[in-house]
Amino acid sequence: MTAIRSKWGDREARREDILTAARACLAEQGLQALNIRDIARLAQLSPGTVYTYFASKEELYATLYAERLELLLEELRPVCDSAPDVETLFLGIARLYWPMYRLYGRELNVWSGLRRKEQEPTALELRLLNASRNLFGPVFGAALRLSADPALARLYQERAGEVMALCWICLTGLAEHFSGDRPLLHGLSYEDTARLTIRTLMAGLQALAATPVIVES
Amino acid sequence: MTAIRSKWGDREARREDILTAARACLAEQGLQALNIRDIARLAQLSPGTVYTYFASKEELYATLYAERLELLLEELRPVCDSAPDVETLFLGIARLYWPMYRLYGRELNVWSGLRRKEQEPTALELRLLNASRNLFGPVFGAALRLSADPALARLYQERAGEVMALCWICLTGLAEHFSGDRPLLHGLSYEDTARLTIRTLMAGLQALAATPVIVES
DNA sequence: ACCTGAACACCGTTCAAGT
DNA sequence: ACCTGAACACCGTTCAAGT
Fold first, then answer.
1. Strand C nucleotides below 7 A of a protein CB?
2. Using the 8-state DSSP alphabet, how is residue A105 labeled?
3. What does residue B84 show for φ and ψ, rounded to 5 degrees?
4. Does the pLDDT at position A3 exceed 50?
5. Residues whose CB falls within 8 Å of the CB of residue B164, separated by 6 or more in sequence, listed in order
């Protein structure tokens, strides 16, 4: 981990030290074992001090998560720009998504619990929300650019929400599926399953692109 | 909750009281807030006693989870027997799966953590594994019975593992997707999204049934 | 044998006291 | 102002003592 650089009173650097320490703890032992005393020790300050920088352990964790989402966006850009087809695009995203999901995805509910109903969202909540939203733009743009079939392109535009939800569900389901013991039941690899998933999904969307109404309740 | 019925030394009934109390606590406040002292109070015994019935909180939780999986199988049977087509089958499963996932699904890793490597699986671990496995039979049978297209039926049989993984991923992704705030981003309902998912999946499988090789790395 | 509840270890969080 | 670390509340778990 990066060396401690903060001095007494340098709040900016100290805050960064805490985040760096927390990141290291999380990577090493997972969320379950993440605890303030270890973080404080790694950052070379007292547990009490952590609370002058973050209101709670949850808020500290949510900050890490927001950072990670922002990093994902940076990782995603080159994939979106260079993918030669939608299958490659999805596989690239799936590869980037998995390691993040293993560390953070399971506990999405942690930060959503931060929200107090009927109150203005905090700056942190807005940061999280934006980080999530910002991911869609590049991906959506790339998907649109890569769909040779005009019927498919039209589907993307007219039913963007539904198509994105589908992709998101497959991505999450995939990551979740391979974050436990379940793959042991069939022995498929993450990579192969991701490929199978996107092929099936694309074939399905292609077929549905011909149908005028997709969902009628 | 059911009344306490156990007497001093009636280990069978007492164990059931603990499970009943734990189930009630879980339903009321979620896993996060599940705690031994509350369970003991509800079951009208001391915290220490719980540990003469269950080795740990995790084991108690895993037992509840195994029970819930077994209940799911019972709920699933009539759906599998009566569904007129695959879409209805999937929707029925999705409806049953969601409430279970909200309470238990998030923490699959909890029980998988029970396993000590290179050791014989415990009776509880076997129970969990079997409960999971047993779900596939009826579902698979129904899917096979309902596929009019012989090419699709052949796909099911020859690539059962892959098809099941796909369905499982969609089901989990769907439940996960609707267990947080994410649906707020697009406003679709669980029901509608499940329908869209299975239609797309089926159309995709149908298309792929024509292709000889599905996954080649 | 079965059960109790005080006690221990651990952890999130606070706050009076230090610099 | 910023930081410390003892202290508090809470919780999983144990165990000597009770019945």
1. 1-7, 10-16
2. G
3. -80, -20
4. yes
5. A186, B136, B140
Q: Which residues 91-150 in chain A show a CB within 8 A of chain B?
A: 106, 108-109, 112, 115, 132-133
Residue A206 phi, psi dihedral angles, 5° rounding? -55, -45
Residue whose C-alpha is closest to residue B19's, from B189, A199, B1? B1
Enter the pTM of the model: 0.90
Indicate the average pLDDT of chain B: 87
Rounded Cα distance between B100 and A34, Å, is 27
Distance CA A174, CA A94 (A): 8
What does the alpha-carbon distance between residue B126 and residue B115 come to, in Å, rounded to a whole number?
Answer: 10
- Structure tokens given for B128: 């969990």
Q: How large is the greatest C-alpha to C-alpha distance in chain A, in angstroms?
A: 65
Nearest CA in chain A to B107: A106
Backbone φ and ψ for A10, nearest 5 degrees, come out as: -80, 85
As given in the structure block, the two tokens for residue B114 are 């029970």
Dihedral-angle region of residue B193 (phi above 0 means left; psi in -120 to 50 means alpha; beta otherwise):
alpha
- Residue A185 near chain B (CB below 8 Å): yes
Strand D: positions under 7 A of a protein C-beta atom: 1-7, 10-16
In whole angstroms, what is the distance from residue B143 CA to residue B137 CA? 10
Place of tokens 């699959």: B108
* Single-letter residue type at B191: E
* Closest residue by Cα to residue B143 from B195, B194, B81: B81
Nearest to A189 by CA among A202, A178, A176: A178
Dihedral (CA of B21, B26, B29, B34) sign = positive
Cβ atoms A150, A98 nearer than 8 A? no
- What's CA A1's distance to the chain center, in Å? 23
Supply the DSSP symbol for A2.
Answer: P
Each residue of B167-195: pLDDT tens digit?
Answer: 999 999 999 888 866 666 677 899 999 99
Hunting for tokens 């009630």 — which residue is that? B24
> CA neighbours within 13 Å on the CB side: how many for B212?
0
Q: Is B6 exposed, middle or buried (0-12, 13-18, 19+ CB in 10 A)?
A: middle
pLDDT digits (tens, 9 = 90+) for A80-138: 999 999 999 999 999 999 999 888 876 655 455 445 556 778 888 888 888 888 998 99
Rounded-to-integer distance, Cα B187 and Cα B202, Å:
24
